[in-house]
DNA sequence: CGGTTTTGACCCGCGC
DNA sequence: GCGCGGGTCAAAACCG
């Protein structure tokens, strides 16, 4: 509906200055992650190589970790669709896709997701699932799809940037930070 | 009892 | 204009 408009600038309430919270804290520290990230290969209908190298047809894509350009895109992102029905339109927001070899479709990347749809895709006997970040001010989306070619491989596509910290990351990092502070006194 | 999943309907862009 | 493929909505079911 039209009731949920993302309010302006999210107040920085985090150490460091209003960073773009890219997905995946705990994803990158793969200690808590069983599946291993493998090399993206050519896939039908999607230019995976372009996505990962930051020069696909969407033009504005960047590989992850490029926080500077992410900030810029995040600022320009709020200027967008006001379709009559209030539906989301094709806003050029950063996308990022990768494959994992995993038994379960959803991997714990530290954020909370609410599933809002599932569709069967052509050329694949497995459905694609659509998730959205449950944080109110955050409209990051991701979709998960298992390859019909190789059942053990799951493709996850992230769209957008989190504008809030990851709870799981804090929960993981807090003890560490405390210990560092303690040790820093000597 | 509140949040999440399920699932069919709906919507929209695109190619013919 | 129409059909298809893909993305989203929303109500009901489900679950802790």
From TrEMBL:
<dbReference type="Pfam" id="PF03106">
    <property type="entry name" value="WRKY"/>
</dbReference>
<dbReference type="InterPro" id="IPR003657">
    <property type="entry name" value="WRKY_dom"/>
</dbReference>
<feature type="domain" description="WRKY">
    <location>
        <begin position="102"/>
        <end position="167"/>
    </location>
</feature>
<dbReference type="GO" id="GO:0043565">
    <property type="term" value="F:sequence-specific DNA binding"/>
</dbReference>
<dbReference type="InterPro" id="IPR036576">
    <property type="entry name" value="WRKY_dom_sf"/>
</dbReference>
<keyword id="KW-0238">DNA-binding</keyword>
<feature type="region of interest" description="Disordered">
    <location>
        <begin position="1"/>
        <end position="21"/>
    </location>
</feature>
<keyword id="KW-0539">Nucleus</keyword>
<dbReference type="GO" id="GO:0003700">
    <property type="term" value="F:DNA-binding transcription factor activity"/>
</dbReference>
<keyword id="KW-0805">Transcription regulation</keyword>
<dbReference type="GO" id="GO:0005634">
    <property type="term" value="C:nucleus"/>
</dbReference>
<feature type="compositionally biased region" description="Pro residues">
    <location>
        <begin position="1"/>
        <end position="18"/>
    </location>
</feature>
<protein>
    <recommendedName>
        <fullName>WRKY domain-containing protein</fullName>
    </recommendedName>
</protein>
<keyword id="KW-0804">Transcription</keyword>
<dbReference type="InterPro" id="IPR044810">
    <property type="entry name" value="WRKY_plant"/>
</dbReference>
<feature type="region of interest" description="Disordered">
    <location>
        <begin position="71"/>
        <end position="92"/>
    </location>
</feature>
<feature type="compositionally biased region" description="Basic residues">
    <location>
        <begin position="83"/>
        <end position="92"/>
    </location>
</feature>
């Amino acid at each position: 509906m039209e009731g949920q408009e993302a309010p302006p600038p999210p107040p920085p309430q985090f150490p460091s200055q209003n960073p773009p919270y890219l997905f995946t804290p705990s994803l990158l520290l793969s200690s808590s992650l069983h599946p291993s990230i493998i090399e993206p290969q050519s896939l039908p209908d999607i230019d995976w190589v372009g996505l990962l190298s930051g020069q696909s047809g969407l033009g504005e894509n960047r590989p992850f970790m490029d926080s500077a350009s992410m900030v810029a895109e995040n600022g320009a992102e709020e200027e967008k669709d006001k379709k009559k029905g209030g539906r989301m339109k094709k806003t050029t927001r950063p996308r990022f896709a990768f494959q994992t070899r995993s038994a379960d479709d959803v991997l714990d990347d530290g954020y909370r997701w609410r599933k809002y749809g599932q569709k069967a895709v052509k050329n694949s006997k497995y459905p694609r699932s659509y998730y959205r970040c449950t944080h109110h001010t955050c409209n990051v989306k991701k979709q998960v799809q298992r390859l019909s070619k190789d059942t053990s491989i799951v493709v996850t596509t992230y769209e957008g940037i989190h504008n809030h910290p990851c709870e799981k990351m804090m929960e993981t990092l807090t003890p560490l930070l405390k210990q560092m502070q303690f040790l820093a006194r000597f």
